[in-house]
Amino acid sequence: MNTARLTAHTTTSRAKNSKTMQLLGRAGMVCYGVVHLLLAYLAVRVATGDKSEQADQKGAIQEVGSTAFGGFLLWVLGIGLIAYGLWQFLMAAKSFQWVTKKGKRTRRRISAAARGVVGVALGVTSIGYVLGSSGSGGSGGDQQQTWTAKVLSWPAGPFLVGVVALVIIGVAIGVAARGIRKSFLSDLDMTDLPRGTRQWVRRLGVFGYVAKGVTFCIVGILIGIAAIQHDPEQAGGLDAALKTLANQPFGTVALFVVALGLAAYGVYCFAAAKAHKS
Fold it and tell me: Cα–chain-centroid distance for residue 89?
């Protein structure tokens, strides 16, 4: 009798935890998708010659804040992104049971924890912008240059910055490979999605992951150049990466493609909000 009650209690607890994770995940994925759609919009602005825009996650949040209902939208976006971060932390703690290989499951959990940090940071930035506490923080690229300058001043600074660059490039390759191999599909349960929609989710996921991989790779290359030249001004975040790409031969075309990829990932997040496993 006691065993039956314990089993029933455990089953109920798991159901509640699963439902909580699903609610956090769906709300968060939608907000994460919105951020990527805004990034795509800012990338298009850069491609068309507007270099004054801050084309990174903080710039996307500022873009929302500039609208008529910006304050309300930023609160919603901030709460949603924090929900996304918390969901990723929960995933990192006890999910990915469908991944059979233990080492691969561990890597997936580490990646989820990293996404959790990003989600919470973006959410706090969004709410901080409403409260007026993020206006003096500078762009992500400026902060990265400051961090790079400090590290480069250390005895082994250039080596450490070079290692960080290689790590970022490695992550970028992994993100792009995730799209090319379509391994992201293992995290989705698309049985409730219409058959035609499933094919579009696959295509959007492939294009979106590859585009994100390209942008991360450029960020890593910029940091690597800063390490080689001992020049922190060469370092930069997503904003610098997109503007560097725009300055290259055929850069405008390439930037439009990246923008389409970021938009594709944003739309993919909307589908993943419905189909992601918990």
Answer: 14
